[in-house]
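User: I'm putting together a teaching handout on how sequence relates to shape, and I'd like one worked example. Could you take FMN-binding protein from Methylomonas koyamae, show the sequence you're using, and then write out its predicted structure as C-alpha coordinates right after it?

Assistant: Happy to. First the sequence, then the C-alpha coordinates directly below it.
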Amino acid sequence: MTAASSALATVYYSKAEALKLAFAEDVGVEVLSLFPTPEQVTEIERLAKVKLDSNLISLHVGKKQGQIVGYALIESHTVRTQPETLLLVLNPDGRLRNVYTLAFHEPTEYQPPERWFALLTNRSLEDLSFDKEVQAVAGATLSSRAALNSARKLVAIFEVLLKPAKP
Protein backbone atom coordinates (compact mmCIF):
# COMPACT_ATOMS: atom_id res chain seq x y z
CA MET A 1 0.00 0.00 0.00
CA THR A 2 1.41 3.40 -0.93
CA ALA A 3 1.47 6.36 1.42
CA ALA A 4 -1.26 8.03 -0.64
CA SER A 5 -3.56 5.02 -0.50
CA SER A 6 -2.91 4.37 3.18
CA ALA A 7 -4.14 7.90 3.90
CA LEU A 8 -7.49 6.84 2.43
CA ALA A 9 -7.75 3.73 4.58
CA THR A 10 -10.37 3.89 7.29
CA VAL A 11 -10.77 1.26 9.98
CA TYR A 12 -14.03 1.77 11.83
CA TYR A 13 -14.14 -1.20 14.20
CA SER A 14 -11.78 -3.85 15.53
CA LYS A 15 -12.88 -7.50 15.56
CA ALA A 16 -13.84 -7.26 19.25
CA GLU A 17 -15.84 -4.08 18.62
CA ALA A 18 -17.49 -5.70 15.60
CA LEU A 19 -18.69 -8.67 17.63
CA LYS A 20 -20.16 -6.25 20.19
CA LEU A 21 -22.06 -4.64 17.30
CA ALA A 22 -23.32 -8.04 16.19
CA PHE A 23 -24.40 -9.30 19.60
CA ALA A 24 -25.37 -7.77 22.93
CA GLU A 25 -22.88 -7.58 25.78
CA ASP A 26 -24.49 -10.51 27.61
CA VAL A 27 -24.29 -12.84 24.59
CA GLY A 28 -21.54 -15.45 24.40
CA VAL A 29 -19.79 -15.79 21.05
CA GLU A 30 -18.36 -19.02 19.68
CA VAL A 31 -16.48 -19.56 16.43
CA LEU A 32 -18.04 -22.21 14.21
CA SER A 33 -15.64 -23.56 11.56
CA LEU A 34 -17.49 -25.03 8.60
CA PHE A 35 -15.91 -27.24 5.93
CA PRO A 36 -18.48 -27.69 3.17
CA THR A 37 -18.28 -30.70 0.89
CA PRO A 38 -17.67 -30.10 -2.83
CA GLU A 39 -21.41 -30.62 -3.41
CA GLN A 40 -22.28 -28.06 -0.73
CA VAL A 41 -19.78 -25.57 -2.21
CA THR A 42 -21.43 -26.00 -5.61
CA GLU A 43 -24.88 -25.41 -4.09
CA ILE A 44 -23.75 -22.34 -2.09
CA GLU A 45 -22.17 -20.85 -5.21
CA ARG A 46 -25.28 -21.60 -7.27
CA LEU A 47 -27.58 -19.92 -4.74
CA ALA A 48 -25.26 -16.98 -4.04
CA LYS A 49 -24.26 -16.50 -7.69
CA VAL A 50 -20.72 -15.89 -6.46
CA LYS A 51 -17.67 -18.09 -5.84
CA LEU A 52 -16.51 -19.03 -2.35
CA ASP A 53 -12.98 -17.83 -1.67
CA SER A 54 -12.18 -20.72 0.65
CA ASN A 55 -13.47 -24.11 1.75
CA LEU A 56 -13.16 -22.94 5.35
CA ILE A 57 -15.97 -20.71 6.58
CA SER A 58 -15.59 -19.19 10.05
CA LEU A 59 -18.86 -17.95 11.50
CA HIS A 60 -19.33 -16.30 14.87
CA VAL A 61 -22.36 -17.73 16.65
CA GLY A 62 -24.02 -15.64 19.34
CA LYS A 63 -25.65 -17.64 22.11
CA LYS A 64 -27.60 -16.60 25.17
CA GLN A 65 -28.74 -19.18 27.71
CA GLY A 66 -27.94 -21.95 25.23
CA GLN A 67 -30.08 -20.44 22.45
CA ILE A 68 -28.63 -19.11 19.20
CA VAL A 69 -29.38 -15.40 18.84
CA GLY A 70 -27.57 -14.92 15.55
CA TYR A 71 -24.66 -15.59 13.24
CA ALA A 72 -21.97 -13.17 12.09
CA LEU A 73 -19.46 -13.32 9.27
CA ILE A 74 -16.49 -11.00 8.92
CA GLU A 75 -15.57 -10.88 5.25
CA SER A 76 -12.81 -9.03 3.44
CA HIS A 77 -12.72 -8.62 -0.31
CA THR A 78 -11.19 -6.30 -2.88
CA VAL A 79 -13.58 -3.67 -4.17
CA ARG A 80 -11.69 -1.98 -6.97
CA THR A 81 -8.02 -2.17 -6.02
CA GLN A 82 -8.19 -1.97 -2.22
CA PRO A 83 -9.85 -4.09 0.49
CA GLU A 84 -13.13 -3.64 2.28
CA THR A 85 -14.10 -5.58 5.38
CA LEU A 86 -17.74 -6.09 6.29
CA LEU A 87 -19.54 -7.60 9.24
CA LEU A 88 -22.72 -9.35 8.14
CA VAL A 89 -25.17 -10.50 10.81
CA LEU A 90 -28.00 -13.00 10.44
CA ASN A 91 -30.98 -13.60 12.70
CA PRO A 92 -31.31 -17.20 13.95
CA ASP A 93 -33.71 -17.91 11.07
CA GLY A 94 -31.14 -16.86 8.45
CA ARG A 95 -32.52 -13.42 7.57
CA LEU A 96 -29.92 -10.68 7.16
CA ARG A 97 -30.15 -8.40 10.20
CA ASN A 98 -27.26 -5.94 9.78
CA VAL A 99 -24.31 -5.09 7.58
CA TYR A 100 -21.53 -2.94 9.00
CA THR A 101 -18.41 -1.61 7.32
CA LEU A 102 -15.46 -2.51 9.52
CA ALA A 103 -12.73 -1.15 7.23
CA PHE A 104 -12.71 0.58 3.87
CA HIS A 105 -9.48 1.31 2.03
CA GLU A 106 -10.88 2.80 -1.18
CA PRO A 107 -11.64 6.53 -1.37
CA THR A 108 -14.62 7.33 0.88
CA GLU A 109 -16.75 8.50 -2.04
CA TYR A 110 -16.77 4.85 -3.23
CA GLN A 111 -18.32 3.67 0.04
CA PRO A 112 -22.07 2.97 0.20
CA PRO A 113 -23.82 4.87 3.00
CA GLU A 114 -25.18 3.01 6.03
CA ARG A 115 -28.75 3.70 4.91
CA TRP A 116 -28.05 1.68 1.75
CA PHE A 117 -26.92 -1.31 3.83
CA ALA A 118 -30.22 -1.08 5.72
CA LEU A 119 -32.02 -1.79 2.41
CA LEU A 120 -30.48 -5.28 2.42
CA THR A 121 -31.99 -6.40 5.72
CA ASN A 122 -34.75 -8.98 5.95
CA ARG A 123 -34.66 -9.72 2.22
CA SER A 124 -34.86 -13.21 0.76
CA LEU A 125 -31.91 -14.58 -1.14
CA GLU A 126 -33.76 -13.95 -4.41
CA ASP A 127 -34.37 -10.30 -3.47
CA LEU A 128 -30.69 -9.64 -2.68
CA SER A 129 -30.10 -8.57 -6.26
CA PHE A 130 -29.82 -5.41 -8.33
CA ASP A 131 -32.53 -6.96 -10.50
CA LYS A 132 -35.08 -6.52 -7.71
CA GLU A 133 -35.69 -3.83 -5.09
CA VAL A 134 -32.03 -3.04 -4.31
CA GLN A 135 -30.36 -0.34 -6.41
CA ALA A 136 -26.64 0.16 -6.91
CA VAL A 137 -25.17 3.28 -5.35
CA ALA A 138 -24.10 5.87 -7.92
CA GLY A 139 -20.37 6.37 -7.58
CA ALA A 140 -20.09 3.28 -5.39
CA THR A 141 -21.30 0.59 -7.77
CA LEU A 142 -18.37 -1.77 -7.23
CA SER A 143 -18.51 -1.58 -3.43
CA SER A 144 -22.30 -1.96 -3.35
CA ARG A 145 -22.01 -4.98 -5.68
CA ALA A 146 -19.30 -6.49 -3.44
CA ALA A 147 -21.49 -5.98 -0.35
CA LEU A 148 -24.49 -7.51 -2.09
CA ASN A 149 -22.37 -10.52 -3.11
CA SER A 150 -21.22 -10.94 0.50
CA ALA A 151 -24.80 -10.81 1.77
CA ARG A 152 -25.95 -13.41 -0.77
CA LYS A 153 -22.98 -15.61 0.11
CA LEU A 154 -23.78 -15.58 3.83
CA VAL A 155 -27.49 -16.25 3.32
CA ALA A 156 -26.62 -19.12 0.94
CA ILE A 157 -24.18 -20.56 3.49
CA PHE A 158 -26.97 -20.52 6.06
CA GLU A 159 -29.43 -22.15 3.62
CA VAL A 160 -27.06 -24.97 2.71
CA LEU A 161 -25.11 -25.60 5.91
CA LEU A 162 -27.12 -24.33 8.90
CA LYS A 163 -30.82 -24.20 8.16
CA PRO A 164 -32.64 -26.87 10.13
CA ALA A 165 -34.15 -29.55 7.92
CA LYS A 166 -37.94 -29.51 7.75
CA PRO A 167 -39.46 -32.55 9.44
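A couple of points you could highlight for students: Residues 48 and 70 are 20 Å apart (CA to CA). The first helix runs from residue 3 to 8.
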